[in-house]
Amino acid sequence: MAGILEILSSPERSGQTIDPDRVWQKSMAGAIRDLPTLLNRLGLPADLHGVFSPVSGEFPILVPESYLKRMHPGDPHDPLLLQVLPQQEERVDVTGFEHDPVGDENSRAAPGLLHKYHGRGLLITHGSCAVNCRYCFRRHFPYGEEPRALEQWEPALRVLAEETSFSEVILSGGDPLMLNDRRLQALLSRFDEIPHLRRLRIHSRLPVVLPERVTAGLIRLLTETRLRTVFVIHSNHPRELVGDCAAALSELRSAGIILLNQAVLLRGVNDDVNTLAELCERCVDLGVVPYYLHQLDRVQGAAHFEVPVETGRQLIEQLRQRLPGYAVPRYVAEIPGERSKTPL
Ligand SMILES: *Cc1c(COP(=O)(O)O)cnc(C)c1O
Ligand code: SF4
Protein backbone atom coordinates (compact mmCIF):
# COMPACT_ATOMS: atom_id res chain seq x y z
CA MET A 1 0.00 0.00 0.00
CA ALA A 2 1.26 3.46 -0.86
CA GLY A 3 1.74 5.74 2.13
CA ILE A 4 -0.19 8.99 2.26
CA LEU A 5 2.94 11.07 1.62
CA GLU A 6 3.71 8.99 -1.43
CA ILE A 7 0.20 9.52 -2.74
CA LEU A 8 0.34 13.26 -2.10
CA SER A 9 3.63 13.61 -3.89
CA SER A 10 2.74 11.23 -6.72
CA PRO A 11 3.40 12.47 -10.26
CA GLU A 12 -0.27 11.92 -11.12
CA ARG A 13 -1.26 14.57 -8.61
CA SER A 14 1.38 17.04 -9.58
CA GLY A 15 0.23 16.79 -13.21
CA GLN A 16 3.37 15.11 -14.55
CA THR A 17 3.43 11.83 -16.43
CA ILE A 18 1.52 8.97 -14.86
CA ASP A 19 3.55 6.07 -13.45
CA PRO A 20 3.27 3.52 -16.29
CA ASP A 21 3.02 0.61 -13.83
CA ARG A 22 -0.03 2.28 -12.39
CA VAL A 23 -1.88 2.14 -15.73
CA TRP A 24 -1.74 -1.63 -16.14
CA GLN A 25 -2.23 -2.23 -12.44
CA LYS A 26 -5.41 -0.21 -12.67
CA SER A 27 -6.53 -2.33 -15.64
CA MET A 28 -5.92 -5.41 -13.51
CA ALA A 29 -7.95 -3.99 -10.66
CA GLY A 30 -10.83 -3.47 -13.10
CA ALA A 31 -10.63 -6.94 -14.70
CA ILE A 32 -13.78 -9.07 -14.79
CA ARG A 33 -13.95 -11.61 -11.96
CA ASP A 34 -17.46 -13.01 -12.00
CA LEU A 35 -19.71 -14.91 -14.37
CA PRO A 36 -22.74 -12.57 -14.42
CA THR A 37 -20.57 -9.61 -15.45
CA LEU A 38 -18.73 -11.63 -18.09
CA LEU A 39 -21.99 -12.87 -19.66
CA ASN A 40 -23.65 -9.47 -19.39
CA ARG A 41 -20.76 -7.62 -21.03
CA LEU A 42 -20.94 -10.01 -23.98
CA GLY A 43 -24.71 -9.78 -24.33
CA LEU A 44 -25.11 -13.44 -23.40
CA PRO A 45 -28.06 -14.78 -21.36
CA ALA A 46 -27.50 -14.89 -17.59
CA ASP A 47 -28.66 -18.52 -17.58
CA LEU A 48 -26.35 -19.66 -20.38
CA HIS A 49 -26.39 -23.45 -20.47
CA GLY A 50 -23.38 -25.51 -19.34
CA VAL A 51 -21.40 -22.84 -17.48
CA PHE A 52 -20.84 -22.26 -13.76
CA SER A 53 -19.64 -19.70 -11.24
CA PRO A 54 -16.50 -20.96 -9.50
CA VAL A 55 -16.90 -21.11 -5.73
CA SER A 56 -14.13 -20.52 -3.22
CA GLY A 57 -11.34 -23.07 -3.74
CA GLU A 58 -12.12 -23.41 -7.46
CA PHE A 59 -10.06 -21.73 -10.18
CA PRO A 60 -11.61 -18.22 -10.36
CA ILE A 61 -12.69 -16.21 -13.38
CA LEU A 62 -10.27 -13.48 -14.45
CA VAL A 63 -10.56 -11.58 -17.73
CA PRO A 64 -8.97 -8.18 -18.40
CA GLU A 65 -10.87 -5.58 -20.40
CA SER A 66 -8.51 -5.54 -23.37
CA TYR A 67 -8.99 -9.28 -23.91
CA LEU A 68 -12.76 -9.01 -23.50
CA LYS A 69 -12.86 -6.31 -26.20
CA ARG A 70 -11.52 -8.76 -28.75
CA MET A 71 -14.37 -11.25 -28.16
CA HIS A 72 -17.45 -11.23 -30.39
CA PRO A 73 -20.53 -10.23 -28.38
CA GLY A 74 -23.42 -12.67 -28.45
CA ASP A 75 -21.31 -15.69 -29.40
CA PRO A 76 -21.11 -18.29 -26.60
CA HIS A 77 -18.60 -20.26 -28.72
CA ASP A 78 -16.23 -17.36 -29.28
CA PRO A 79 -12.74 -18.90 -29.26
CA LEU A 80 -11.36 -16.24 -26.92
CA LEU A 81 -14.29 -16.57 -24.54
CA LEU A 82 -13.98 -20.37 -24.43
CA GLN A 83 -10.46 -19.98 -23.03
CA VAL A 84 -11.74 -18.14 -19.94
CA LEU A 85 -15.34 -19.38 -19.47
CA PRO A 86 -15.85 -22.05 -16.75
CA GLN A 87 -17.72 -24.99 -18.29
CA GLN A 88 -19.52 -27.64 -16.25
CA GLU A 89 -17.21 -30.27 -17.79
CA GLU A 90 -14.39 -28.87 -15.61
CA ARG A 91 -16.05 -30.33 -12.56
CA VAL A 92 -16.06 -33.86 -13.96
CA ASP A 93 -13.11 -36.01 -12.92
CA VAL A 94 -11.58 -37.75 -15.94
CA THR A 95 -9.12 -40.62 -15.49
CA GLY A 96 -5.61 -39.65 -16.51
CA PHE A 97 -6.12 -35.94 -15.80
CA GLU A 98 -4.14 -35.03 -12.68
CA HIS A 99 -3.20 -32.17 -10.38
CA ASP A 100 0.49 -31.95 -11.32
CA PRO A 101 0.57 -33.38 -14.86
CA VAL A 102 4.01 -32.04 -15.74
CA GLY A 103 5.82 -33.15 -12.59
CA ASP A 104 6.83 -29.65 -11.45
CA GLU A 105 6.99 -30.73 -7.82
CA ASN A 106 9.89 -33.10 -8.53
CA SER A 107 12.22 -30.58 -10.14
CA ARG A 108 12.42 -27.90 -7.46
CA ALA A 109 16.07 -26.85 -6.96
CA ALA A 110 15.34 -24.00 -4.50
CA PRO A 111 12.20 -22.13 -3.49
CA GLY A 112 10.83 -20.68 -6.74
CA LEU A 113 13.47 -22.34 -8.94
CA LEU A 114 12.73 -25.36 -11.12
CA HIS A 115 15.54 -27.26 -12.80
CA LYS A 116 13.61 -29.21 -15.40
CA TYR A 117 15.60 -28.55 -18.54
CA HIS A 118 19.35 -28.85 -19.02
CA GLY A 119 21.10 -25.47 -18.96
CA ARG A 120 17.93 -23.59 -18.13
CA GLY A 121 16.78 -22.45 -14.72
CA LEU A 122 13.10 -21.70 -14.50
CA LEU A 123 12.00 -19.13 -11.94
CA ILE A 124 8.40 -19.08 -10.83
CA THR A 125 8.53 -15.32 -10.59
CA HIS A 126 4.96 -14.52 -9.80
CA GLY A 127 2.04 -16.64 -8.64
CA SER A 128 -0.77 -14.98 -10.50
CA CYS A 129 -1.66 -14.10 -14.06
CA ALA A 130 -3.63 -11.35 -15.76
CA VAL A 131 -6.07 -13.94 -17.06
CA ASN A 132 -7.18 -17.33 -15.82
CA CYS A 133 -7.07 -19.78 -18.72
CA ARG A 134 -9.33 -22.71 -18.03
CA TYR A 135 -6.93 -25.19 -19.69
CA CYS A 136 -3.96 -24.08 -17.58
CA PHE A 137 -1.68 -26.85 -16.30
CA ARG A 138 -0.90 -24.75 -13.26
CA ARG A 139 -4.49 -24.34 -12.11
CA HIS A 140 -3.71 -26.45 -9.03
CA PHE A 141 -0.12 -25.31 -8.46
CA PRO A 142 0.65 -24.34 -4.84
CA TYR A 143 1.83 -20.84 -5.68
CA GLY A 144 1.57 -19.60 -2.11
CA GLU A 145 4.84 -21.42 -1.37
CA GLU A 146 6.97 -19.43 -3.83
CA PRO A 147 9.14 -16.51 -2.69
CA ARG A 148 7.65 -13.04 -2.75
CA ALA A 149 10.08 -10.54 -1.24
CA LEU A 150 13.42 -10.05 -2.97
CA GLU A 151 15.46 -11.50 -0.11
CA GLN A 152 13.42 -14.70 -0.41
CA TRP A 153 14.93 -15.11 -3.87
CA GLU A 154 18.47 -15.44 -2.47
CA PRO A 155 18.53 -19.29 -2.37
CA ALA A 156 17.36 -19.47 -6.00
CA LEU A 157 19.88 -16.80 -7.07
CA ARG A 158 22.62 -18.72 -5.25
CA VAL A 159 21.81 -21.93 -7.15
CA LEU A 160 21.74 -19.99 -10.44
CA ALA A 161 25.16 -18.53 -9.65
CA GLU A 162 26.72 -21.81 -8.49
CA GLU A 163 25.41 -24.07 -11.22
CA THR A 164 27.61 -23.01 -14.11
CA SER A 165 25.75 -25.22 -16.59
CA PHE A 166 22.92 -22.66 -16.59
CA SER A 167 23.18 -20.42 -19.65
CA GLU A 168 19.58 -19.32 -19.62
CA VAL A 169 17.23 -18.08 -16.96
CA ILE A 170 13.54 -18.47 -17.72
CA LEU A 171 11.03 -16.24 -16.01
CA SER A 172 7.78 -18.08 -15.78
CA GLY A 173 4.82 -18.17 -13.46
CA GLY A 174 2.02 -17.56 -13.24
CA ASP A 175 3.02 -14.61 -15.33
CA PRO A 176 6.42 -12.97 -14.63
CA LEU A 177 5.29 -9.62 -16.00
CA MET A 178 2.80 -9.32 -13.15
CA LEU A 179 5.90 -8.10 -11.27
CA ASN A 180 6.27 -4.36 -11.46
CA ASP A 181 9.25 -2.82 -13.23
CA ARG A 182 11.08 -2.06 -10.01
CA ARG A 183 11.05 -5.68 -8.87
CA LEU A 184 11.86 -6.97 -12.34
CA GLN A 185 14.79 -4.59 -12.48
CA ALA A 186 16.02 -5.90 -9.14
CA LEU A 187 16.04 -9.49 -10.44
CA LEU A 188 17.49 -8.61 -13.84
CA SER A 189 20.40 -6.72 -12.34
CA ARG A 190 21.25 -9.82 -10.28
CA PHE A 191 21.21 -12.01 -13.40
CA ASP A 192 23.56 -9.53 -15.08
CA GLU A 193 26.15 -10.33 -12.41
CA ILE A 194 26.12 -14.09 -13.07
CA PRO A 195 28.73 -14.54 -15.78
CA HIS A 196 27.58 -17.89 -17.20
CA LEU A 197 24.05 -16.61 -17.89
CA ARG A 198 23.68 -15.60 -21.54
CA ARG A 199 19.97 -15.42 -22.14
CA LEU A 200 16.90 -14.16 -20.37
CA ARG A 201 13.74 -15.88 -21.46
CA ILE A 202 10.35 -14.47 -20.59
CA HIS A 203 7.24 -16.62 -20.88
CA SER A 204 4.30 -14.27 -20.68
CA ARG A 205 0.76 -14.01 -21.95
CA LEU A 206 0.55 -10.34 -20.97
CA PRO A 207 1.25 -8.84 -24.42
CA VAL A 208 -1.80 -10.85 -25.55
CA VAL A 209 -4.22 -10.32 -22.67
CA LEU A 210 -2.98 -7.07 -21.10
CA PRO A 211 -1.04 -5.22 -23.81
CA GLU A 212 -0.78 -2.06 -21.70
CA ARG A 213 1.82 -3.98 -19.63
CA VAL A 214 4.27 -3.49 -22.49
CA THR A 215 5.47 -0.06 -21.37
CA ALA A 216 8.51 1.90 -22.49
CA GLY A 217 9.99 1.16 -19.08
CA LEU A 218 9.58 -2.58 -19.53
CA ILE A 219 11.17 -2.48 -22.97
CA ARG A 220 14.08 -0.53 -21.51
CA LEU A 221 14.61 -3.21 -18.87
CA LEU A 222 14.52 -6.01 -21.42
CA THR A 223 16.98 -4.31 -23.74
CA GLU A 224 19.38 -2.84 -21.18
CA THR A 225 20.18 -6.19 -19.58
CA ARG A 226 23.51 -7.77 -20.59
CA LEU A 227 21.58 -10.94 -21.47
CA ARG A 228 19.95 -11.57 -24.82
CA THR A 229 16.19 -11.41 -24.28
CA VAL A 230 13.94 -14.03 -25.84
CA PHE A 231 10.25 -13.39 -25.32
CA VAL A 232 7.77 -16.24 -25.68
CA ILE A 233 4.20 -15.02 -26.04
CA HIS A 234 1.35 -17.48 -25.58
CA SER A 235 -1.30 -16.93 -28.22
CA ASN A 236 -3.81 -19.54 -29.27
CA HIS A 237 -5.95 -17.74 -31.80
CA PRO A 238 -5.34 -15.21 -34.61
CA ARG A 239 -8.09 -12.94 -33.30
CA GLU A 240 -6.00 -12.38 -30.19
CA LEU A 241 -3.27 -10.75 -32.27
CA VAL A 242 -5.01 -7.52 -33.29
CA GLY A 243 -5.36 -3.93 -32.11
CA ASP A 244 -3.48 -3.00 -28.95
CA CYS A 245 -1.92 -6.47 -28.78
CA ALA A 246 -0.46 -6.14 -32.29
CA ALA A 247 0.86 -2.70 -31.34
CA ALA A 248 2.54 -4.05 -28.18
CA LEU A 249 4.20 -6.85 -30.15
CA SER A 250 5.42 -4.38 -32.69
CA GLU A 251 7.04 -2.31 -29.91
CA LEU A 252 8.84 -5.36 -28.55
CA ARG A 253 9.92 -6.30 -32.05
CA SER A 254 11.23 -2.83 -32.82
CA ALA A 255 13.36 -3.03 -29.69
CA GLY A 256 15.15 -6.04 -31.17
CA ILE A 257 13.69 -8.60 -28.79
CA ILE A 258 13.38 -12.12 -30.22
CA LEU A 259 9.70 -13.10 -30.23
CA LEU A 260 8.38 -16.67 -30.30
CA ASN A 261 4.86 -18.02 -29.94
CA GLN A 262 3.87 -21.09 -28.02
CA ALA A 263 0.25 -22.13 -28.62
CA VAL A 264 -1.76 -24.88 -27.00
CA LEU A 265 -3.92 -27.08 -29.23
CA LEU A 266 -7.43 -26.61 -27.81
CA ARG A 267 -10.67 -28.25 -28.86
CA GLY A 268 -13.23 -25.71 -30.02
CA VAL A 269 -10.64 -22.92 -30.01
CA ASN A 270 -7.99 -23.66 -32.63
CA ASP A 271 -8.32 -27.31 -33.68
CA ASP A 272 -8.91 -26.62 -37.36
CA VAL A 273 -6.36 -26.00 -40.04
CA ASN A 274 -7.70 -22.61 -41.15
CA THR A 275 -7.45 -21.16 -37.65
CA LEU A 276 -3.98 -22.57 -37.06
CA ALA A 277 -2.73 -21.40 -40.45
CA GLU A 278 -4.07 -17.90 -39.79
CA LEU A 279 -2.52 -17.90 -36.30
CA CYS A 280 0.87 -18.79 -37.77
CA GLU A 281 0.57 -16.18 -40.52
CA ARG A 282 -0.53 -13.47 -38.10
CA CYS A 283 2.49 -14.31 -35.97
CA VAL A 284 4.87 -14.01 -38.91
CA ASP A 285 3.20 -10.74 -39.96
CA LEU A 286 4.01 -9.38 -36.50
CA GLY A 287 7.58 -10.69 -36.39
CA VAL A 288 6.77 -13.57 -34.03
CA VAL A 289 8.14 -17.01 -34.91
CA PRO A 290 5.51 -19.79 -34.50
CA TYR A 291 7.62 -21.93 -32.21
CA TYR A 292 5.58 -24.63 -30.48
CA LEU A 293 2.12 -26.10 -30.80
CA HIS A 294 1.72 -27.73 -27.44
CA GLN A 295 -0.37 -30.80 -26.74
CA LEU A 296 -2.64 -30.05 -23.78
CA ASP A 297 -1.17 -31.04 -20.43
CA ARG A 298 -3.55 -33.49 -18.82
CA VAL A 299 -4.58 -31.37 -15.88
CA GLN A 300 -7.71 -32.20 -13.99
CA GLY A 301 -10.57 -29.98 -15.20
CA ALA A 302 -9.24 -29.47 -18.73
CA ALA A 303 -10.24 -32.76 -20.38
CA HIS A 304 -12.87 -31.05 -22.54
CA PHE A 305 -10.10 -29.12 -24.33
CA GLU A 306 -8.16 -32.20 -25.38
CA VAL A 307 -7.54 -32.92 -29.07
CA PRO A 308 -6.29 -36.43 -29.94
CA VAL A 309 -2.59 -36.53 -30.87
CA GLU A 310 -3.46 -38.18 -34.18
CA THR A 311 -5.66 -35.18 -35.09
CA GLY A 312 -2.85 -32.84 -34.05
CA ARG A 313 -0.41 -34.64 -36.34
CA GLN A 314 -2.82 -34.36 -39.27
CA LEU A 315 -3.24 -30.64 -38.61
CA ILE A 316 0.52 -30.09 -38.62
CA GLU A 317 0.81 -32.07 -41.86
CA GLN A 318 -1.86 -29.86 -43.43
CA LEU A 319 -0.03 -26.75 -42.21
CA ARG A 320 3.17 -28.03 -43.76
CA GLN A 321 1.44 -28.26 -47.13
CA ARG A 322 0.18 -24.69 -46.88
CA LEU A 323 2.86 -22.64 -45.19
CA PRO A 324 6.59 -21.96 -45.51
CA GLY A 325 8.62 -24.20 -43.21
CA TYR A 326 9.46 -21.41 -40.76
CA ALA A 327 5.76 -20.74 -40.19
CA VAL A 328 4.99 -24.32 -39.10
CA PRO A 329 5.35 -24.81 -35.33
CA ARG A 330 6.83 -27.91 -33.71
CA TYR A 331 4.11 -30.12 -32.27
CA VAL A 332 5.29 -31.15 -28.80
CA ALA A 333 4.20 -32.51 -25.45
CA GLU A 334 5.59 -32.10 -21.97
CA ILE A 335 6.25 -35.54 -20.50
CA PRO A 336 7.05 -35.64 -16.75
CA GLY A 337 10.71 -36.39 -16.03
CA GLU A 338 11.88 -35.71 -19.62
CA ARG A 339 14.72 -33.19 -19.95
CA SER A 340 13.10 -31.47 -22.92
CA LYS A 341 9.78 -31.38 -24.67
CA THR A 342 8.90 -34.45 -26.67
CA PRO A 343 8.22 -34.01 -30.41
CA LEU A 344 4.99 -35.65 -31.51
C1 LIG B 1 8.58 -25.68 -22.74
C2 LIG B 1 8.79 -24.63 -21.83
C3 LIG B 1 10.09 -24.22 -21.51
C4 LIG B 1 11.31 -24.85 -22.14
O1 LIG B 1 11.21 -24.60 -23.48
P1 LIG B 1 12.28 -24.99 -24.59
O2 LIG B 1 11.99 -24.03 -25.66
O3 LIG B 1 11.95 -26.39 -24.97
O4 LIG B 1 13.62 -24.78 -24.01
C5 LIG B 1 10.22 -23.20 -20.60
N1 LIG B 1 9.17 -22.61 -20.03
C6 LIG B 1 7.90 -22.98 -20.30
C7 LIG B 1 6.78 -22.27 -19.64
C8 LIG B 1 7.66 -23.99 -21.22
O5 LIG B 1 6.41 -24.34 -21.49
S1 SF4 C 1 -1.49 -17.11 -18.67
FE1 SF4 C 1 -0.43 -19.08 -18.76
S2 SF4 C 1 0.06 -19.60 -16.65
FE2 SF4 C 1 -1.51 -17.97 -16.61
S3 SF4 C 1 -3.48 -19.03 -16.49
FE3 SF4 C 1 -3.07 -18.68 -18.66
S4 SF4 C 1 -2.05 -20.54 -19.35
FE4 SF4 C 1 -1.94 -20.50 -17.12
Structure explained in plain terms:
The chain is α/β, with parallel strands linked by helices and 344 residues long. It has 2 domains: 4-91, no CATH class; 105-343, Alpha-Beta Barrel (TIM Barrel), CATH 3.20.20. It has helices at 4-8, 20-29, 35-41, 65-69, 154-162, 181-192, 206-209, 216-224, 243-254, 273-285, 309-322, and strands at residues 108-110, 113-117, 120-126, 168-173, 199-204, 228-233, 258-264, 289-294, 330-333, 342-343. The chain has a 10-stranded mixed beta sheet with strand order 1-2-3-4-5-6-7-8-9-10. Helix 10 links the parallel strand 7 and strand 8 (289-294). The longest helix is centred in the last third of the chain and has 14 residues, at 309-322. The radius of gyration is 20 Å and the shape is globular. The site of iron/sulfur cluster has 11 residues, from loops.
CATH topology of the largest domain: TIM Barrel
Judging from the principal axes of the Cα atoms, what is the shape? globular
Structural class based on helices, strands and sheet pairing:
alpha/beta
Top CATH class of the largest domain: Alpha Beta
What is the arithmetic mean of pLDDT? Answer: 91
Radius of gyration: 20 Å
Reading the helices and strands in chain order gives: HHHHEEEHEHEHHEHEHEHEE
Work out the helix count.
11
Low-confidence stretches: 1-15
